[in-house]
Write a structure and sequence with these properties.
Keywords: Cytoplasm, Hydrolase, Metal-binding, Nuclease, Nucleus. By secondary structure, the protein is an alpha/beta fold. Helices cover 42% and strands 18% of the residues. It contains five helices and five strands, in the order H-H-E-E-E-H-H-E-E-H. Strand 2 and strand 3 form a beta hairpin.
């Protein structure tokens, strides 16, 4: 298109910075007044009570950076940024962390997030559902690795149903914004 590569890079950086400054205006966790409705929607989705969000990370593929390239290689050998997303029952992103190279584990991203710090101090009125990459906390619920009783099986089924639809938010985002020169996301 006749535009120098440096100019494109500067424009992309400027637009990315502007969008990042607007993030807190559009990506917000439910307020106290919204929590009851969020819990109801999650319950209708999969019979899991007291749920206020689902959390997962997704790898967004990138071209290999020139500096610290090895940090961006994920467990499948591809260059990526590991993005943490929390979503609600309507597939809206309510919290996100977009700053970690692909080699960083989901649990570390979570542990170092503002969400973790905030909720460790001010416990939310509800729970966030997570997969086994995340720690079990009073406000983070994972599934039973082995369901030994009928009640554990029912819990795992409800956990899986409730997590499955909003969890697809991350996959959808990754497929929409992947690096064009890379293969499909993980």
């Amino acid at each position: 298109m006749g535009v120098h590569r440096t100019t494109v890079g500067e424009v992309v950086t400027a637009v990315s910075d502007a969008l990042a400054r607007l993030l807190d205006h559009f990506v917000t966790f439910p307020t106290d007044g919204q929590i009851a409705k969020v819990k109801q929607k999650f319950f209708l989705l999969g019979d899991m009570p007291n749920t206020i969000g689902v959390i997962d990370c997704t790898h967004v593929h990138i071209q290999a950076p020139r500096q610290r390239e090895w940090e961006y290689v994920n467990r499948k050998g591809r260059h990526s940024i590991n993005v943490q997303l929390v979503g609600d029952a309507d597939l809206a992103i309510t919290n996100c962390v977009v700053r970690w190279p692909g080699s960083v584990h989901d649990a570390r991203i979570f542990r170092e997030s503002r969400l973790f710090t905030e909720f460790q101090t001010n416990r939310p009125d509800g729970v966030i559902l997570a997969d086994s990459a995340y720690p079990l906390l009073p406000w983070v619920m994972t599934h039973f690795p082995t369901a030994n009783t009928p009640s554990q099986m029912r819990y795992n089924n409800a956990h899986g149903r409730t997590r499955s639809m909003p969890n697809n938010t991350g996959l959808y985002c990754a497929t929409q914004y992947r690096c064009p020169s890379q293969s499909p996301p993980l």
